[in-house]
Specification:
Layout lengths: L5 E3 L2 H14 L5 E8 L3 E8 L3 E3 L4 E3 L9 E8 L8 H10 L2 E6 L7 E5 L4 E2 L1 E2 L2
Parallel strand pairs: 1-3, 1-10, 6-7
Antiparallel strand pairs: 2-3, 2-6, 4-5, 7-8, 8-9
The protein binds zinc ion.
Zinc ion binds next to strand 6.
Length: 127
């Protein structure tokens, strides 16, 4: 159902994602995203930070994810120039559902890609 909707990422959220990814480079940054579903679109409304452990090759979310009904997926960075999901990403996403955003180095707007839980890239727009 999400696959047919337009994904909208507001400019301020794009800016936050780019800045956080940059500030943690060469480590990965990772957080959850909240969103609002309407008839035609899924709009990302915020980033939900939580504690995580991170090194240059992986980031592991802790288990104590806040129970928030509007969490619709996740975002994480890749310190290399590849925004494609890894095998581990796809495995985790298939359990989590939702949509997942990857931003890769050099962390500009055009380095952001959005995927569904099967790892298929979705079209997104910034409004
Ligand atoms: Zn990844």
């Amino acid at each position: 159902m999400i696959n047919k909707k337009q994904i909208i990422i507001p400019p301020r959220i794009i800016k936050n994602i780019c800045e956080f990814a940059k500030s943690l480079h060469p480590k990965e940054f990772s957080c959850l995203v909240s969103g609002k579903l309407s008839e035609r679109a899924l709009t990302i409304t915020g980033l939900v930070y939580q504690h995580f452990v991170s090194d240059s090759s992986s980031s592991v979310l802790w288990d104590n994810v806040p129970i928030l009904s509007n969490i619709i997926g996740s975002v994480h960075s890749h310190p290399d120039e590849n925004a494609l999901p890894s095998v581990a990403d796809k495995r985790a996403w298939s359990k989590e559902g939702g949509i997942h955003i990857i931003i890769c180095y050099p962390y500009k707007k055009e380095n952001i890609a959005v995927y569904n839980s099967q790892g298929k890239q979705l079209e997104s727009a910034s409004l």
